[in-house]
Amino acid sequence: MKEVTQIIIADDHPLLRRGVKELIEEQEGWQVIGEASDGEKALELARKFPAAILIIDIVMPKMNGFEVAKAIRENKLPNNIIILSMHNKESFFDRAMDLGILGYVIKDSADTEIIDAIKNVSAGKYYLSPSISGFAVKRGQYITSGSDDVIGISRLTVTERKILKMISENMSTKDIANKLFISIHTIERHRANICQRLDLHGTNVLLRFALEHKDIL
């Protein structure tokens, strides 16, 4: 039997929630198992359904979307998160990436992008609306230096580079998760993404890479 993809929608606009829900439930094997009109309810649902993907707006009553995401990470809940917002400012995007959020969809394009976003995020991959994808490039540019481009480190996000540096310091996955206030599952996903970006394969290869390039991390 095919596993059901569970999804929570958190937005204080009922019409938007209904529209997104209709799009989602057209997909076979996808189920909206909860809706929230404020951040506190969204966090409550995330705790109740830790395997669910949380689609959440940034501006919400009681707790905003970033506060909910931070609480989810601090409580080490495994929920993957998609921001669905009208805000396309770089500062909002950077905050989302620093919290380990995998998806960021601009509301104006939700009807054409939310399905692809869920597919990617459910597989542990990033999804960004094309209109803000340039911010990801800029984050990469901010952390480039010297020979980084040759070995691919410039392709890492700021969070991934932080994790790689901690790996080079022989910190365990559990220690890294505790230091960054995110779940072990999220760290493992970041490690897999780092290996994919750097084209690394094999047992302990990420640790060897981190130790070899420790001086430029």
Provide the descriptors you would attach to this structure in a database record:
217 residues, alpha/beta, Rossmann fold, Arc Repressor Mutant, subunit A
Question: Can you characterise this structure?
Answer:
- The longest helix has 15 residues, at 184-198.
- By secondary structure, the chain is an alpha/beta fold.
- Helix 9 crosses helix 10 (184-198).
- Mean pLDDT is 86; it is low at 141-150.
- It is globular and about 55 Å long.
- It folds into two domains: 5-131, Response regulator (Rossmann fold, 3-Layer(aba) Sandwich), CATH 3.40.50; 143-216, Winged helix-like DNA-binding domain superfamily/Winged helix DNA-binding domain (Arc Repressor Mutant, subunit A), CATH 1.10.10.
- Helices cover 50% and strands 13% of the residues.
- Strands 2-1-3-4-5-6 form a six-stranded parallel sheet.
- The protein contains eleven helices and six strands.
